[in-house]
Amino acid sequence: MLENLSNRLQGIFSGLRSKGRLTEEDINAAMREIRMALLEADVNFKVVKAFVARTKERCLEADVLDSLTPAQNVIKIVLDELTELLGRSDAKLELGNRIPAVIMLVGLQGSGKTTAAAKLAYRLKQQNHSPLLVAADVYRPAAADQLQTLGGEIGVKVYRHDGADPVDIAREGVQEAIDSLRDVVIIDTAGRLHVDEAMMEEARAIKEALQPEEILMVVDAMTGQDVVNVVSAFAEAVDFDGVIMSKMDGDARGGGALSVREVTGKPIKFISSGEKPDSLEEFHPDRMAKRILGMGDMVSLIENAVRLQQEQEEAEEAEAMAAGNLTLDDFITMNRQIRKMGGISKFISALPGGDKALGSGQVDEGALDAMEVIINSMTKEERARPEVLNGSRRSRIARGAGVSVTEVNQLIKKFNETKKMVKKMTAGMEQQMGRKGKK
Ligand code: GDP
After folding, report:
1. Ligand 1 test: best mutation among 108, 111, 113, 115, most atoms within 8 Å of CB?
2. Are residues 143 and 286 in the same domain?
3. CA angle at residue 360 from 269 to 344, to 5 degrees?
4. Does 199 share its domain with 215?
5. How far is the CA of 405 from the centre of ligand 1 (A)?
6. pLDDT, tens digit, for every residue of 76-116?
7. How many domains does the chain have?
8. With a cut of 50, which residues of the chain have pLDDT below it?
């Protein structure tokens, strides 16, 4: 997520720190570098210009340069301005008092609207809402099917009426929600490849008819410089309330995330960084700014950890581990829990200096996927009692998973190592808690 920019800025700051005292020329040089770094990250040039001007002005104030730690002061100012650029305070989803509340998603085709609708539904469901998804994208033939598949995966009902007018579908969706006692309706509207009047007209018509509590624009973080034109066009035509920034996991430059607020005045409310239903997070400008500057997003990390702890699954897992009888199914559960924390690489990059520590050696989440495919090719018995995995079973599994026997062997080896480690840990814990004697 904005890694290149993050690395560049951290480099500029270590240059400043190594200087001790700073002159006006040092500040000017640093600001020129910041300007380049932002432009290369695809942040809109007007936004960059204004940002650098504000930051520079504050940095050149006499008391900053004269202070004992001028570099620290400069970094603080950049952090502050970056937080401001990203929106200063958190902008939450506003569902109002009406039941059902209506959320409408708009955006270009391919921006990630349909997936975002499902992710939002998943999130609301977890917060004890009962959402209904409505497929009002009548132009992309597969959109309703896609939404229905996603709805099936997360257990959220999808309303569709193929061939009908989008405004009617949206209205019927709300009626369906009333009839089936659901409290939030999420409408997936049609996008086009480019900004066009017919799309805006349709979005306006749905807005007019339903007066949604929230209109969220889904913006692909990989859009590049054009993002400014796209969000401005939507802001003018539909006047949305906030943004869902999608595909933040991409390796693109991601400058859109830093431009949207300044250009439209609309806040980013969520960011999405993956294709899975749980990859939608609330957006926190301060945390994001800290993360970009390599200050480690400890708060998000702790929140994730706490949420994880609360999960029933973990309790069950701990129980299985305490008994020392780890199975390959547990192994999958462990693997999924790592992902739930946002993946190993996200975990590490959220630590102070973690982005740097990762460097180019990003942890390979693909390896986790491959592992799961192999385990899925095993029978129930094999997963529960891996010791039965002889040569012929291993080659059958390799064929089923489309991998080599060596890869299956490696997985089993890894599993056995983990099992040993878990046993050791549990023994250690029991000793510490004095449980051994009581048994
Ligand atoms: P729509 O045309 O706006 O409805 O876009 P879709 O929801 O169909 O998304 C387009 C593609 O982007 C799909 O392949 C999604 O799986 C993918 N996508 C959506 N959001 C994300 C994200 O946050 N990260 C990644 N990596 N892919 C995403």
Report:
1. 115
2. yes
3. 55
4. yes
5. 34
6. 899 999 999 999 889 999 999 999 999 999 999 999 999 99
7. 3
8. 359-363, 435-439
